[in-house]
Design a protein that fits this description.
single chain, mainly alpha, 15 helices, 75% helix
């Protein structure tokens, strides 16, 4: 489950900015662009609490606004996963994020009100009926849910919820695979490589998802290569692929519209993975 959290760090940090920008436009859109194009994660970390308080204030006046709820869900989830070390606080932020995302999804898509209790067959049937207009709410819910699962990784009942998240994210891939710079593929890649093949994992399917993100972004999504190395190459003990992918990340320019923040974090993670490779392999 640690790997779900790693995915959330980059994907949610990017998503929080774009979602908040959609809420009010203007100044917030400019701030969103500044966050996404920042090459200084520390500044984003230090500024995130101000966004959290601001969204809480906005929700006091408009508690049933789905855009505000999704923005609050995404930022709370990002902050919890990326910057909160205390496990109790992290679980509290993640639970708040999931609650906001669930409330927003329930407003936009009726059947998602019961998504935690509906039978798996019914869930799969409903997920298959999601339409393109549902991509935003469904993706926000699935990502917040993944973050909640990671924060509650000690609880096997929470981990079991991945079986509910995957059909929703898989449908988002079908509807708009390029959403959030290929984010749906990236999450699916992580989900499919959480466990080895002998235990029911599907690493080759995961590899295809990672490769598709790279293709969709013309190789500019450096975090996709980091996950490819960490999730797939390490799972299969492929040192050659592992090192090749990470060295590509280190050699690349992190600056790319909407991806600079994630790429900067990705380069830091690539260096850490390479430094630990001898001990792993």
């Amino acid at each position: 489950m640690r790997h779900v959290g790693v995915a959330a760090i980059s994907l949610l940090l990017a998503g929080c900015a774009s979602l908040i920008g959609n809420v009010t436009g203007g100044l917030f859109e400019d701030l969103s662009d500044a966050i996404l194009d920042s090459d200084d994660p520390a500044t984003v970390r230090d500024g995130a609490p101000a966004y959290l308080l601001m969204l809480d204030a906005l929700l006091r006046g408009d508690p049933d606004n789905p855009e505000l709820l999704r923005g609050a869900a995404t930022l709370n989830g990002a902050y919890a996963t990326a910057f909160v070390a205390d496990e109790v606080r992290r679980r509290a932020f993640a639970s708040k994020a999931f609650d906001y995302a669930h409330r927003a999804a329930c407003i936009d898509i009726d059947w998602l009100c019961d998504v935690r209790t509906v039978g798996f067959d019914d869930l799969a049937r409903h997920a298959a009926m999601l339409e393109e207009r549902h991509v935003g709410p469904a993706y926000a819910l699935a990502t917040a849910w993944a973050g909640w699962i990671q924060a509650h990784a000690h609880d096997w009942n929470a981990i079991a919820d991945l079986a509910r998240v995957k059909p929703i994210m898989a449908r988002v891939v079908e509807l708009d695979e390029a959403h959030d710079h290929g984010g749906p593929h990236l999450y699916m890649g992580v989900f499919e490589t959480l466990i080895p093949p002998a235990s029911g994992g599907h690493p080759e399917i995961g590899r295809a998802h990672f490769e598709r993100v790279i293709e969709l972004t013309d190789g500019r999504h450096l975090m996709a290569k980091v996950f490819f190395a960490q999730q797939y190459a390490r799972l299969l003990f492929d040192r050659e692929l592992h090192d090749a992918l990470l060295n590509e990340v280190l050699a690349a320019d992190p600056a790319a519209p909407g991806l600079t923040l994630m790429n900067t974090i990705g380069k830091e993670q690539a260096r850490a993975l390479l430094d630990s490779a001898d001990g792993y392999f």
